[in-house]
């Protein structure tokens, strides 16, 4: 469960990106975060995995206030949260398999478990047959699937995605969305910032609209509500 | 830490050394140059020290006792000298002993002084040593003012100059070595920083998926260590072989002047250990410095 209470974020340069957000997201929900550019969507997302600390307020993840979490404990938080970005963030010198395994290696998972989990996850995203390829040999959609595989290979309870389809063509975007649907169906909470009107209006989920750092709308099975 | 994890760190550190070949070369060279200079300075300084301390040991004040002084006067003078705070020891040497010493020290030529044994022109002498050799001058000045101290000799002038020289060279050497060490660390931290910029994404992803800072740091720590160790090989080889020949050449010559330098064994091994240690420290420090800001959460 993710809960924010009166959360504010002012960057060191003086920009206030988030000003007074109260929200509660239950385990297993699928939530779209929508709103114009610069509204504070990415800041909202970054605060969930402690990339940014709120300047004021409380953020509870499964009951733990992560705004007061010691830096040393942050890695443990991150092991329970999968993060997906618009630009994939893959390591170009590693194969598909290695990129996904990387997430388990650096948290010192056992080698035989690594192999098993990575292959299972690659199967889930439909890339088992391309495990030995390099990211540069894949299409954008396939690269994003590798990145998703990496984010979920450790079976996190929460998966957050910042415009995961932002760099992809419409058809590929639908494929990516079906993977997120599957992840959600398996019980993970999904929080996704997106500009994709069509997707939001077709695959109906809770929609939270942010403008100028505030929540202006929060509807179950909501609409995108902006011209895209 | 699990052995498997440690093996991974070692593997990663070597991979990175190979991948950043030129940077590795530059860093290793920086360590090498520094350690050669540090090593040479260190060898010279330690030997100067050795020479200095043997000479310091030999610095003594010879207090010539006025021939008119009676037994009792000598005792009083001795008491007064002993009371000077800088004085460590005092020994009496009669004029007969003094003459024997003189004759002995001159060898064959000394025989010409034999006839003087009947009519000894020398004085009885107190041989005084200062607690701290550098206080010799001070002690000598105080003794000069005492009654029945006819002449006070301690190699005036040359002793002061020697002490000055030793002290200056010690300080200059120390400042130079410290300066060099910092230069090398700076160079290494900058070269490694360039390689880290290239690995920024890797570190970013590691942090994203929950690697601890310790885990992320290890390969860099090892990389710095390897750079330091690699950089100390050539300096150790150079300094020890140079010392081997220098010792062979200088030792007999200096022995004629009763000057001893440090023996090849164990000195060269101590220098080698020091250089390895310094290399490792420079490398590790440089490496850690360079990645500090990349680790901020
Ligand atoms: N690291 C940062 N430092 C300073 N200002 C930032 C930073 N990140 C974002 N901002 C500012 O905060 C505001 C919200 O940005 P962001 O959260 O990225 O919005 P969105 O993702 O909705 O486009 C913008 O005005 C942006 O310029
Ligand atoms: Mg954004």
UniProtKB/TrEMBL annotation, chain A:
Give the record's keywords alphabetically.
ATP-binding, Cell cycle, Cell division, Cell membrane, Membrane, Nucleotide-binding, Transport
Enumerate the InterPro entries for this protein. AAA+_ATPase (IPR003593), ABC_transporter-like_ATP-bd (IPR003439), ABC_transporter-like_CS (IPR017871), ABC_transpr_LolD-like (IPR015854), Cell_div_FtsE (IPR005286), P-loop_NTPase (IPR027417)
Molecular function terms, GO-annotated? ATP binding; ATP hydrolysis activity; transmembrane transporter activity
One GO cellular component term, please give it.
Answer: plasma membrane
Query: Where is the protein found, in the record's own terms?
Result: Cell membrane
Stretches assigned to the ABC transporter domain:
2-228
GO terms for biological process, alphabetical = cell division
Superkingdom, according to UniProt?
Bacteria
Q: Does the keyword Membrane apply?
A: yes
| Membrane-related topology note | Peripheral membrane protein
Q: What is its main location?
A: membrane
**What subunit structure does UniProt give?**
Homodimer. Forms a membrane-associated complex with FtsX.
Q: What does this protein do?
A: Part of the ABC transporter FtsEX involved in cellular division.
* PANTHER family the record matches: CELL DIVISION ATP-BINDING PROTEIN FTSE (PTHR24220:SF470), IMPORT ATP-BINDING PROTEIN (PTHR24220)
Q: Please report which protein family the annotation says this sequence is part of.
A: Belongs to the ABC transporter superfamily.
Question: Which NCBIfam families does this one have?
Answer: FtsE
- UniProt protein name: Cell division ATP-binding protein FtsE
Q: Which organism is it from?
A: Bacillus methanolicus PB1
The gene it comes from is: ftsE
From TrEMBL, chain B:
Q: Which GO terms describe its cellular component?
A: plasma membrane
Tell me the organism.
Answer: Bacillus methanolicus PB1
GO terms under biological process:
cell division
Residue intervals of the ABC3 transporter permease C-terminal domain: 175-290
Q: Which residues form the FtsX extracellular domain?
A: 59-152
Q: Which residues cross the membrane?
A: 21-44, 172-192, 225-247, 267-286
UniProt xrefs under Pfam families: FtsX, FtsX_ECD
Keywords from the UniProt entry: Cell cycle, Cell division, Cell membrane, Membrane, Transmembrane, Transmembrane helix
Q: Of which family is this protein a member?
A: Belongs to the ABC-4 integral membrane protein family. FtsX subfamily.
Give the source's domain of life in one word.
Answer: Bacteria
Query: What does the function comment of this entry state?
Result: Part of the ABC transporter FtsEX involved in asymmetric cellular division facilitating the initiation of sporulation.
Q: What is this protein called?
A: Cell division protein FtsX
How does the entry describe its membrane topology? Multi-pass membrane protein
Q: Where in the cell is it found?
A: Cell membrane
């Amino acid at each position: 469960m993710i809960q924010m209470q009166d959360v504010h974020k002012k960057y060191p340069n003086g920009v206030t990106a988030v000003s007074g957000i109260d929200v509660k997201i239950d385990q297993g929900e699928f939530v779209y975060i929508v709103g114009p550019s610069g509204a504070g969507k990415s800041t909202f997302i970054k605060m969930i995995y402690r990339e940014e600390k709120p300047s004021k307020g409380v953020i509870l993840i499964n009951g733990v206030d992560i705004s007061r979490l010691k830096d040393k404990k942050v890695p443990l938080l991150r092991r329970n949260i999968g993060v997906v970005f618009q630009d994939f963030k893959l390591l170009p010198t590693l194969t598909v398999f290695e990129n996904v395994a990387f997430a388990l290696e650096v948290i010192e998972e056992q080698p035989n478990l690594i192999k098993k989990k990575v292959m299972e996850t690659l199967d889930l995203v439909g890339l088992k047959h391309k495990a030995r390829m390099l990211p540069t040999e894949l299409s954008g959609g396939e690269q994003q699937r590798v990145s998703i595989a990496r984010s979920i290979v450790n079976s996190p309870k929460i998966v957050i995605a910042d415009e995961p389809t932002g760099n992809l063509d419409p058809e590929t975007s639908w494929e990516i969305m079906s993977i997120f649907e599957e992840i959600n169906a398996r019980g993970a909470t999904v929080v996704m910032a997106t500009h994709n009107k069509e997707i939001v209006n077709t695959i109906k989920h809770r929609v939270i609209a942010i403008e100028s750092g505030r929540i202006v709308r929060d509807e179950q099975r909501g609409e995108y509500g902006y011209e895209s | 830490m699990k052995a498997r994890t440690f093996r991974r760190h070692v593997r990663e550190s070597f991979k990175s050394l190979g991948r950043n070949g030129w940077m590795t070369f530059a860093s290793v060279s920086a360590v090498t140059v520094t350690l050669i200079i540090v090593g040479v300075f260190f060898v010279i300084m330690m030997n100067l020290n050795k020479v200095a301390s043997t000479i310091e040991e030999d610095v003594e004040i010879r207090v010539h006792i006025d021939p008119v002084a009676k037994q009792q006067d000598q005792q009083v003078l001795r008491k007064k000298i002993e009371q000077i705070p800088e004085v460590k020891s005092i020994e009496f040497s009669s004029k007969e002993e003094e003459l024997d010493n003189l004759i002995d020290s001159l060898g064959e030529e000394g025989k010409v002084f034999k006839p003087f044994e009947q009519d000894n022109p020398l004085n009885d002498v107190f041989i005084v040593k200062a607690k701290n050799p550098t206080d010799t001058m001070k002690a000598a000045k105080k003794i000069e003012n005492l009654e029945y101290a006819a002449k006070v000799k301690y190699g005036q002038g040359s002793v002061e100059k020697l002490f000055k020289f030793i002290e200056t060279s010690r300080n200059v050497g120390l400042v130079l070595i410290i300066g060099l060490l910092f230069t090398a660390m700076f160079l290494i931290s900058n070269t490694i920083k360039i390689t880290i910029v290239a690995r920024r994404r890797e570190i970013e992803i590691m942090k994203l998926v929950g690697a601890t800072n310790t885990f992320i740091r290890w390969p860099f720590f090892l990389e710095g260590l390897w750079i330091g160790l690699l950089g100390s090989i050539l300096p150790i080889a150079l300094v020890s072989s140079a010392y081997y020949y220098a010792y062979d050449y200088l030792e007999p010559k200096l022995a004629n002047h009763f000057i001893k330098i440090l023996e090849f064994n164990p000195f060269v091994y101590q220098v080698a250990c020091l250089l390895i240690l310094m290399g490792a420290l420079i490398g590790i420090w440089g490496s850690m410095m360079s990645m500090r800001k990349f680790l901020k959460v």
